[in-house]
Amino acid sequence: REDERKPYRANSWRPVLMNEIFDKLREPFPADAIHWRVGATNNRDNPTKGIALAYLSAVDVMNRLDDVLGAENWQDRYPFSGCCELSIRIGGEWITKSNCAGETDVEKEKGQASTAFKRAAVKFGIGRYLYDMNNAWFDVEKRGRTTVFTKAAQQRMTDLYARWITKKVAA
Questions:
Q1: pLDDT in tens, 102-151
Q2: Mean pLDDT of the chain
Q3: How far is 86 from 115, CA to CA, in rounded Å?
Q4: Beta strands in the chain (DSSP E)
C-alpha cells in the first residue's frame, strides 16, 4: 500500500513550523544588543589587554522569545538554585531544555538565575552563534577592583561585531 511507504509523522505541521521558529530564534542580534565582558587578561595585577567575551542580556533573550513565540508560549522555571528549565510551546506541545550556572560576582543569586536562563536559551539557538566568534584582545583599564574595556575598545568591538555578523549572514 502507498501509505505504508510514507514516513510516519505524528504531527505533520512540526517539521516546517519548527524550522521556521528555530530559524527566527537563531537570528543574530543587532550590534547594540551585544554586551562585552573581560575574559582573560595579559597581567593579573596591572592588565592592559583583555579577551572580549560577547553576551546578551536576559531581557533581550526574553524579548526574542516574546517576539518569535508570544509571551504565552514560553516559560521558565527554577527547580533548584542555579538551574533554569526553559520551555517553549509549539503547536500545543511544550519542549523543555535546561542549564545551570554558578553564582556570579555581582548580585550572586540574580546573576546565577540570569546566566542559567541565557544558557538554557542557547540550547534553543538564541545567541549560540556568539560562541563562533574568535577570541580577540582589546585595551582594558582598572576601575576599582574591576577590569573593564576602554571606551575606544568597546566601540571597536561593536564595529568588528557588526562587520562579522554581516559577513556571517551573507555567507
A1: 877 767 778 889 999 999 999 999 999 999 999 899 999 999 889 999 99
A2: 88
A3: 12
A4: 35-41, 49-55, 74-77, 83-90, 93-100, 137-143, 146-149
Cell of 127: 545567541
The pLDDT confidence band at residue 16, using thresholds 50, 70 and 90, is low
Residue with cell 536559551: 121
- Beta-bridge partner residues of 110: none
Size of the chain in residues:
171
Please name which of 113, 76, 115 lies closest in space to residue 96, comparing C-alpha atoms: 76
Paired sense of beta strands 137-143 and 146-149, if any? antiparallel
Cα(67)–Cα(150) distance, rounded to whole angstroms?
A: 33
Give the span between the Cα atoms of 153 and 146, in whole angstroms: 16
